[in-house]
Amino acid sequence: MFFSEIRFLYPFILLMFSSHILKDHEAADTDTITLGNHLNSSATIVSAGGMFELGFYQPANSTNYYVAIMYKNILEDRVVWIANRDYPVTASAFFCIGNDGNLAIRQGRIIYMVTDLQLTNANVSATLLDSGNLVFRDENSSILWQSFDFPSHTFLPGMKLGYDRRIGKTWSYVSWRSSNDPSPGNFTLQLDPGPEKRIVILNGDEIYWRSIRPWGDNSNIFEFPPDTRMNMYNFTFVSESDTAYLTYTLYRNDTISRFTLDATGQLRQVLWLENKWSLLNSQPRHPCDVYAYCGANSSCSNVWSSFCSCLPGFEPSTAELWNNGDFKDGCSRKNDLQCSMEGLGTSEDGFNELSNVKLPQNQLTLEVQSMDECRSACSSNCSCSGFSYTNRNCSTWSGDLINLQQLLADDISGTNFYLKLAASDLGTNRSTSNIRRAIILSVTVSMTIFGSALFIWQVKKKRDKRKGEGQDLLTFDVTMSPARTETKPAKRRRQVEHEKEVEIPLFSFSSVCAATDNFSFSNKLGEGGFGPVYKGKLLKGEEVAVKRLSRTSGQGWDELKNEAMLIAKLQHKNLVKLLGCCIEGDEKILIYEYLPNKSLDCFLFGTNAMLGLSWETRVRIIEGIAQGLLYLHQYSRVQIIHRDLKASNILLDADMNPKISDFGLARIFGGTEQRATTRIVGTYGYMAPEYALEGVFSVKSDVFSFGVLLLEILSDRKNTGHYLSNSLNLIGYAWDLWRSNKPLELMSTDLRDKYCPNAATRYINTALLCVEERASNRPTMSDVVMMLNNELTILPFPVQPAFSNVGSGLDSSQSIPEISQNKLTVSVVVPR
Ligand SMILES: *[C@@H]1O[C@H](CO)[C@@H](O)[C@H](O)[C@H]1NC(C)=O
Ligand SMILES: *[C@@H]1O[C@H](CO)[C@@H](O)[C@H](O)[C@H]1NC(C)=O
Ligand SMILES: *[C@@H]1O[C@H](CO)[C@@H](O)[C@H](O)[C@H]1NC(C)=O
Ligand SMILES: *[C@@H]1O[C@H](CO)[C@@H](O)[C@H](O)[C@H]1NC(C)=O
Ligand SMILES: *[C@@H]1O[C@H](CO)[C@@H](O)[C@H](O)[C@H]1NC(C)=O
Ligand SMILES: *[C@@H]1O[C@H](CO)[C@@H](O)[C@H](O)[C@H]1NC(C)=O
Ligand SMILES: *[C@@H]1O[C@H](CO)[C@@H](O)[C@H](O)[C@H]1NC(C)=O
Ligand SMILES: *[C@@H]1O[C@H](CO)[C@@H](O)[C@H](O)[C@H]1NC(C)=O
Ligand SMILES: *[C@@H]1O[C@H](CO)[C@@H](O)[C@H](O)[C@H]1NC(C)=O
Ligand SMILES: *[C@@H]1O[C@H](CO)[C@@H](O)[C@H](O)[C@H]1NC(C)=O
Ligand SMILES: *[C@@H]1O[C@H](CO)[C@@H](O)[C@H](O)[C@H]1NC(C)=O
């Protein structure tokens, strides 16, 4: 196929028969190699800022040496470039500028030429830059050669992926043979030179993976997962007649990140975070993403154990291979289309609807006005094998259907695809299809009955178990716990009312110990309210979060019962799910679903802050929190006031959907009447004035906390940070900006204008309404949800918020202690 000439570098080995004597000296403490000095196998040169070093790299368990550029201060997986991938040397080799002025590796009498330039003047030098680029310059500092033009397996910021035909360059990346063998492997990452400019990974000469999105102004060509990470990278696409390449830079100079093509053909994008490489993205992620994994005319599913199946009306082209798990021959039609055997058949070809699929690759797009027009465009063209229609976009396919993927029912990203089939393969008989429907219906009904019976039996079994010993957490089936979605709230409510007591599994302490490796430090996720939180691993590999209530907390049992009962009753996609608990002796432990992305504060203010949340993610988080809180206040059976809503209590799932956690503080509370409490539980900075000062709380105190949280999410600033302006806190700062008619200066600089100003202004306005001094002036959560969503609502103008100036209440010098963890039996602070 089109690329086989991308082996790189200069495999010229010169045998020198003169007994040349090394008279040059060692290069030391420098970033440059000049004529006359050299690097031996234990010496390195280091870039000026100390980011990279160049020296000899010896793979584990190998006697081979390679001249490599490596991260200086990272010890794990540190090689980014290799000069002599195909020609390893031994420990006696030197890296130097040879007599003819070229960069070379010399081992005894053998010289491996790293560069092969015709030089007139040998006054040249090679400097390692902080970008990881080794540049070879002449005396006038013009670049003669640079390592960035001869990529290895790592795509660093500043490097290119693509080609420039004017200068005959191709920037492509070749995997290692194995993780300990840098010699060129099977996989190549490059830009497909076709008109669509997709990124492809080749396995040998065959396409292994291909980006679904063609080249475009949207930079998601690597198909990043749906969240934040794009904000760190500034991708640039250049496409001219003879030149097309992709390059990127990082917005922050303290970020260390790269792409590598690993020996298994995976393109991995990693970030150095908390002393390890964190994987941000990898492609292909699933077998179904591998190009033509199931061959032509088949469908792939990442959930079925066999992955591949033929499309309806098709059968495996080569049954033996297919049955042995080799799918590459794909499937062919059982019956030819009418279209292709003119006039012979008796009935017309038709279409079979495949619902909720990820569409095959290589579509052609037509502009049509209706579904029927799209259908007839496909029917009337013999080479058309199927079509899909959404929003007046008509896509058709011809010939092989590659990478059609069947999605799960709850995956909403799918579309419908209409597959052209011969009438005999269609099953269009009304009667049969009705019968079939009837059968499906009755099967479904009986399955449902059976399922409910099973569920009741399970619940009963659990109840019986409760009387005896705790269950084993290790063998617990996370998916068996009550359904998380509240698709049928009415039914659920009835069900809850039916049960006098909420059933949650009770686990044995020994199984909790086993799951958390005896609460080992390495499993500790953090310190939540009331005690540390650990990660627990179940036998099947599922993970749970284990909150161990601190023994010193006297009220622990109450809190536990409170929290356990409340959470078990609440089912909402924006609330963290309680899976069970463990009470043995002094131990009071709650088991929650595990959320991999930690809490929101990490992304706003903490170590993950450099990942920068995108505007879309922020909007999703804001809306999710609002929905979760609205549910707590209004739609759950009992009204629940959270009382400690804050960024660290918002957890994020793998797709960055927010889930509110820590209901231990919430109280069952009837009506909306305000209550006074002697026990204040909350966090300074988020507490409404009436709650902080008088212990009076209501749903409106949560609304206040939500307002603070909203400002924090928009600005990436803590409410209680230090402010340069006269404002005391974020609320005051936001208010000052609002009054000065420049509210958008509040927005996080990470967003860099990549947000919707109208929506942002509306959010700030809403937040300021939420933090008003008088609780009665604050909106309710249902008002808030409407304000956030409805662009047409005209919002009231906010008045001066609470805590926004020195006169109005608390300032940080007053003695409301930092009470993020612990309950405080309040000695009420009254403002003078
Ligand atoms: C390599 O050079 C360094 C000085 O740059 C020297 O200390 C070291 O002994 C040399 N190693 C060998 C194996 O020659
Ligand atoms: C190196 O060899 C040792 C012993 O043969 C083995 O235990 C170890 O796993 C090997 N390391 C690598 C990275 O292959
Ligand atoms: C080589 O070039 C540098 C400037 O790049 C100059 O300072 C130096 O004197 C030159 N050396 C020789 C031997 O010409
Ligand atoms: C460097 O610049 C000088 C003056 O512009 C020029 O004479 C000389 O040829 C240049 N050297 C190289 C190697 O290009
Ligand atoms: C992104 O990169 C391009 C090209 O390198 C540069 O022109 C542009 O200023 C960068 N954008 C930002 C916001 O840094
Ligand atoms: C990063 O950028 C900041 C501000 O532009 C600068 O002060 C700092 O020295 C830079 N750090 C590095 C490692 O380049
Ligand atoms: C690379 O290709 C060779 C020969 O085709 C094959 O034996 C080897 O398993 C392949 N390696 C990978 C990682 O696919
Ligand atoms: C897949 O179906 C298309 C269209 O019906 C057909 O042209 C093609 O030959 C089929 N591919 C295989 C491998 O049978
Ligand atoms: C076709 O779909 C694209 C995105 O999939 C959309 O941007 C475009 O507006 C659609 N075209 C029409 C005519 O709706
Ligand atoms: C039929 O479809 C093929 C590919 O889908 C296209 O190249 C061809 O122009 C179409 N023919 C007609 C008559 O539309
Ligand atoms: C359609 O129904 C007729 C008679 O009911 C039957 O003979 C025929 O096989 C059916 N065709 C299909 C595709 O089911």
From TrEMBL:
Q: Where is the Bulb-type lectin domain?
A: 30-149
Concerning InterPro entries, the annotation shows:
Bulb-type_lectin_dom, Bulb-type_lectin_dom_sf, EGF, Kinase-like_dom_sf, Pan_app, Prot_kinase_dom, S_locus_glycoprot_dom, Ser-Thr/Tyr_kinase_cat_dom
Can you give the residue ranges of the Protein kinase domain?
Answer: 519-803
Q: Which GO molecular function entries does the Swiss-Prot or TrEMBL record give?
A: ATP binding; protein serine/threonine kinase activity
UniProt KW keywords: ATP-binding, Cell membrane, Disulfide bond, EGF-like domain, Glycoprotein, Kinase, Membrane, Nucleotide-binding, Serine/threonine-protein kinase, Signal, Transferase, Transmembrane, Transmembrane helix
Q: Give the signal peptide as a residue range, or say none if absent.
A: 1-27
Q: Which reaction does it catalyse?
A: L-threonyl-[protein] + ATP = O-phospho-L-threonyl-[protein] + ADP + H(+); L-seryl-[protein] + ATP = O-phospho-L-seryl-[protein] + ADP + H(+)
Where is the protein localized? Cell membrane
Cite the EGF-like domain residue spans from the record: 284-320
- What's the EC number here? 2.7.11.1
Q: Which Gene3D superfamilies match?
A: Bulb-type lectin domain (2.90.10.10), Hepatocyte Growth Factor (3.50.4.10), Laminin (2.10.25.10), Phosphorylase Kinase, domain 1 (3.30.200.20), Transferase(Phosphotransferase) domain 1 (1.10.510.10)
Q: Name one Pfam family in it.
A: PAN_2
SUPFAM superfamilies (UniProt xref): alpha-D-mannose-specific plant lectins, Hairpin loop containing domain-like, Protein kinase-like (PK-like)
Top EC class, one word: transferase
Q: Which GO terms describe its biological process?
A: recognition of pollen
Note the topology in the membrane. Answer: Single-pass type I membrane protein
Q: Which GO terms describe its cellular component?
A: plasma membrane
Q: Per the database record, which ranges form the Apple domain?
A: 339-422
Residues spanning the membrane: 438-457
The entry's family comment says:
Belongs to the protein kinase superfamily. Ser/Thr protein kinase family.
- What name is this protein filed under? Receptor-like serine/threonine-protein kinase
State the organism of origin: Hibiscus trionum
